[in-house]
Each structure stands twice: as structure tokens, then as C-alpha cells.
């Protein structure tokens, strides 16, 4: 069966351009329109009824794609789902969750049947086949996260690299010369979730510039594994005097206290990508994930794409919140 991608190849245009010709959602030059119409005729392409629908015939539904790889995603991921739904409802749209084993197949099914007007991709991978699928299908969408190649899709992300760099700078400013960076989990790195390597890169680059030692360890959902990794590094030389955590790991401050470490007297602590409700016996120095801002932006991007607009991608800068968990290293 002939597809939009086949028509696009014959006409020498992108699949999204074919989609715009079929739906009249964006002004197209006369020459391009003729090329697409000629390809449609030559290939005897029969668009789905939904693709022939009038501009105003909308479902007012956004598909939200969460890949199977996101099983390793932090619980915080479901906060994003909640806020995406709230942002969509603010624009009188409903959200259709796509959580099947094959997220690309799910997107093709939704686009082909026009069960939704567009899609938001969440828990984006560095190399994400869903991005390619949306582009190939000419289906409107936006990305929560920053893939290596967005294929022209608008994306919104938090500056994890900048947040990690700021945390290391704050510790260096306080006098620390040996720092532990607790990165994302093994599962997150295996899945290829885009934020995991970005945070490590920001921390390493800043430590290198400052001439300080940075030991990177991966986090773990297992308290025992987390404790073993952390305590082994704390016993190494030169002795680490500060820890940066990517995402809030509630068990970590407790592990430190159980083994006789007092924050910040014995070890300073900073968190990047924390949530606003983060609490501890000592108010932690941190940067917080702007969940509401990120989700509102990505929904607005998706709705703009449905209207044929091309919004500019947005990287939200990290905002540092000073706490009482950083002090000069013990003498």
C-alpha cells in the first residue's frame, strides 16, 4: 500500500509537506503543491479519510508516548504525565496514553487512524526512533527532552548539563577538591535516556576546568547497592568531601547519617533535578526540575505544530537554590 513517505520520496519533499498539502494546514508554494499532487496521481495514493478531513475536523486529543524503556524511569516521570494532562486540559484537549511494547507501531497506528491530532514524546532517548517515525509520518508533535537529532520537531528540556556544572562550581567555591557525582541509574543509561549522559558531561567538564577530582558513580534503586558504591568511594583517596546527586535519592542522606557522616560538617551535599517537595533534616542546596514549565511548553509546542506553526525549541536554564547542606570541607 502506498504511504505518505512514498509520495514524499517521489515528489522530493518531506512527509510533513505532503501532509500539509492534504490537510491545507500550512501555506505551500504552487510548485511544491503541483509536485505533490503529481506524485499522488502517479502512485495512485489514496489518503486515509482522516487525512482528507477539513481543517476544523479535530479530535482535540493529544497522544502521549512513553516508551517501554521508561520502565526504568524515576517515579518523577508520572508527575510529568499528570502535568501534561493538566496542560492539555487547559487547552480543552484530552490525552491518550501510549505505553505499548512497540512505541513506534503505536504512533503509526494513531497517526494512520487519526485517533489524535498530534503527539508528545516523553522520556525521550538520545537516539529515539519515535522522533524519526513522527517525521516520516508527517504527524504533528513535540518532544519533552532533547534527542540527538530532533528531525525538525520542537523540543523542550531542562538544562541538566548546566545544572550539574553549577552544583560542582558551588562546591569548588566552598573549597572542595574531591567530589562524588551520583549519576542516573544503570537502567537509565542502558535505556539511553537523554538526560543521563548530559548531566555527567556537565559535571566532568566543570571539574576538569577547576582542576578538581570528580568520581562518578551510578545510582541504584537498591539501597544496599547504593550504600556499597557510595561508601567505597568515600573511603578512597583523596578523600571525597562532597556529593552531588542527580535527581533526589531519598535514601542517600540516610545512608550517610547511618555511617556517621553529618551533613554538611563531614560531607557537603547538592542535588540537581530535585522536586519542589524535596525535604530533609538539612535544607539541601539544589536546582529543581521546572515540571510545570516544561510540560506546559511541550503541550503548547505540540498544539502549535497541529496548527502548522514551527515553534522554537527551548532549553530551560537551571535555577540554583541555596540550602544549608554545603560548607567548607573538614580540616
Features:
Cro/C1-type_HTH; 12 strands; 6-stranded parallel β-sheet; transcription; transcription regulation; elongated; 434 Repressor (Amino-terminal Domain); alpha/beta; 331 residues
Report the strand count: 12
Level-1 CATH class name of the domain at 160-289: Alpha Beta
- Contiguous runs where pLDDT drops below 50 for at least 5 residues: 52-56
The CATH superfamily of the domain at 160-289 appears as: Response regulator
- Structural class label: alpha/beta
- If you average the pLDDT, what whole number results? 89
Cα-to-Cα separation, first versus last residue: 73 Å
Q: What's the shape?
A: elongated
Helix content: 40-55%
GO molecular function: DNA-binding transcription factor activity; transcription cis-regulatory region binding
Pfam families: LacI, Peripla_BP_3
Domain HTH cro/C1-type: 3-46
Protein name: LacI family transcriptional regulator
